[in-house]
## 1
Amino acid sequence: MVKGGKRLCGEVTVSGAKNAVVAVIPAAILVDGVCVVENVPNIKDVRVIVTILENMGAVAEFTDATTLTIDCRHVQKQTEPDALMRKMRASYYLLGALLGRFHSAKVTMPGGCCFGTRPIDQHIKGFEALGATVRQDSDVIVAEAERLVGTSIYLDTVSVGSTINIMLAAVLAEGVTVIENAAKEPHIVDLANFLNAMGANIKGAGTDAIKIKGVKRLSGGTYSIIPDQIEAGTFMVAAAATGGNVLVKNVIPKHMESISAKLVEIGAKVIEYDDSIRVEGSETLSPVNIKTQPYPGFPTDMQPQIVTLLSVANGISLVREGVWDNRFQYVGELLRMGANIRVDGKTAFVTGVDHLQGAPVRATDLRGGAGMVIAGLMAHGTTEITDVEHIDRGYEDLETKFKQLGADIHREND
Ligand code: EPZ
């Protein structure tokens, strides 16, 4: 329940990156030792992936609120996939990790947010190029290999998931694997840094050519997850949306450049420090055009939040989705709040209105849900958001953090 109209002011600290940690935890399967992972966000996706690994024989323990110790030495080769895999997208990283470790993986087609078709052909192409055979029995994917041998793999589309999955499968393979046209997201670099800290030999992560020299063994160590780019962006947009003044702490400003640049175009003041960013909102918001793209472009995972902000800008903005087929489900909810948005295929034409009006709305997906929270903060009156479990998958204590910034927000019973 959000009562709008409060300017957000103060400081907020960003948690560890969801999309990095959901790759790093399965990557622990490849490690012959104990991994200590720091700056782990307390979100549902983490709890699910940890439980899946525990069900496979891993020993995992939170030694404090954000430090996860995970020992996968006694993980068993799987015979049947865990039903929990359907609950999250990142369970498909178990394919690469199990294939890399046991040369055999059996995983259920993953769940997660629904943005139209979410094919995994590039993951399969990568595994096959390394020497695996991959087959799909209804919704179960089975990958098997006698040997995994490094090779050059050109991705037909820039894909975060397949870049990560191929890295996982190739780390212990024989010889050298090169992933060309690789995705460059900060979480890809984070996974490579984690694996290298455990003894892998990966170069070029963060560029479009990643070179992985197979090693015989990874051993344990300590690694700290990067801050969450999208959580930081969500607070930055919320500050601008409420005409507030917020210091967003624990960020890597370089990761925020595309978001900062758009907020400045819209009219907000953005001040970068070493590891924090201050956003000051302005009275009038200018319309802007945005196309979401793979990193370093404007992230698709910030599209609902920025469209929500633009719904009260002074003119017409065009927002084109450049990654997913269908990521505008949440727009129907904004329309209930009085927004004027027309979606035509992959483009949203956002005509700014004077204000949004509180209404009962639904979190259609994780980031769409974050958009609804921002809408509620901006709106006149009260907004009731249902299906907030989507938000809990990827944001740690979102309402507590907003409350600390002065928002009038609370959670009805679970
Ligand atoms: C990751 O999804 C993120 N999820 C998504 O974040 C994010 O929206 C997306 O990357 C893009 O940045 C996780 O990291 C767990 P992709 P992923 O493979 O890996 C096509 C969030 O809100 N494609 O980069 O599944 C695909 O259809 C979530 O935190 C193929 O055609 O995305 C899409 O159009 C939602 N074949 C494009 O590539 C493939 O084999 C990018 O997908 C794989 C992908």
## 2
Amino acid sequence: MTADRFPERSAFPPGFLFGAATSAYQIEGAVEQDGRGPSWWDRFAHTPGCIRDGSTGDQACEHYQRWREDLDLMHSLNLQAYRFSVAWPRVLPDGRGRLNPAGLDFYERLVDGLLERGIVPYATLYHWDLPLTLADAGGWQSRDTSSAFADYAVQVMRRLGDRVARWSRLNEPRCSAYVGHLEGRHAPGLRDLRATLSAAHHLLLGHGLAMQAMRAESPSAQLGIVLDVKPYTAADEGALHQQAAWRADGVFNRWFLDPLFRAEYPTDVLAAYAAHMPDVLATDLATIAQPLDHLGLNYYTRGHVLHDPSRPFPQAAEQRVNAAHHSTMEWEDWPEGLYRMLTRIHREYAPKALFVAENGAAEPDRVDADGRVRDPDRQRYLQGHLRACAKALEEGVPLDAYLVWSLMDNFEWGRGYTQRFGLVHVDYATQRRTPKESALAYAAFIRS
Ligand code: FCB
């Protein structure tokens, strides 16, 4: 797929939305303001050695104060949709029980501001900032967290459900489970397979319970979940490499897609995990697999897998494809993978509707002397991936929105502020925002 121009605007049906995404802890700052409680990310970021540049999200992009300016910026870039996350510890500082009305007030102002500017809100209820009280009571390893999540989801829905139609409960349960509990690179910083599988199951269960509760509260809302998906290609035709790629697909993709759409864990991976599984009650999978109104996909890159027996399951050994462009995350620019995942998920799981909830690239951006931020590699990345969307649409995939990660540079979790994913450059010392060249090109494409 050549990737040096935007697709035809007419390749996208009327009503298709183009926008951008962010998440609360990565942009808001104001971690102690207006009654917000602490989350496990506050603790993790403040633990020496956990974040590459020693930074935290305490201040981030000061979006909690600057939200109006940020909404104006979105409007000036012609964005039609904006995906944000609600910080659970702002709404329920202890995770459950006592409601903090000021927290909900903030999101209400934000949503009203979006609607005034004609921007469609997509709300995510959990983008990794678990209230510390729940973390200390077992976090996602505890079944109780799943029910606490459902209670929280309803509280948010009650306040915003008349204005927000599109909801995702979780962002990337795979990342929450594996990166937080097996790789130790995200909160809570564990390296334990049993904890990982327990967290993964309770995240999915929490999604299912919240789904039931929200459906009861607002039958017309569009409810879904956001999964990160990654195609795994094998380094060559050899059977062992092929098997390794399929296993990686099972661990990363099918472990979440199968329970959500088929009410079962994939048997090949389950066999390998059997000794480490948490208690799965008879009704759990039915709770998890309720019909979704839409499925959000986060797509960045592929895994090019090598068979390597020294690498302990479930980790896969990946090989760098040197000929391709790689972002500063060391992620390969491979739009073909987005096309493959969209068509495959449509074919094998048939969600009613799909949207790209995150897609983008971190590049070494800087503001030049003339005030411009030149980021041709990001522009090429976006063009290639939009073309992949157009191709999937042409083949009948019910795709209805494309959201760039991210609206602006922000706190990139364990990598701190070292990665710039934004359409808009942020100078953290002055909080000055500068739309990058790719943002201007994206804005022109949306308008065209
Ligand atoms: C995704 C996360 C998002 C951001 C991007 C780069 O996994 O959902 O918050 O960190 O990666």
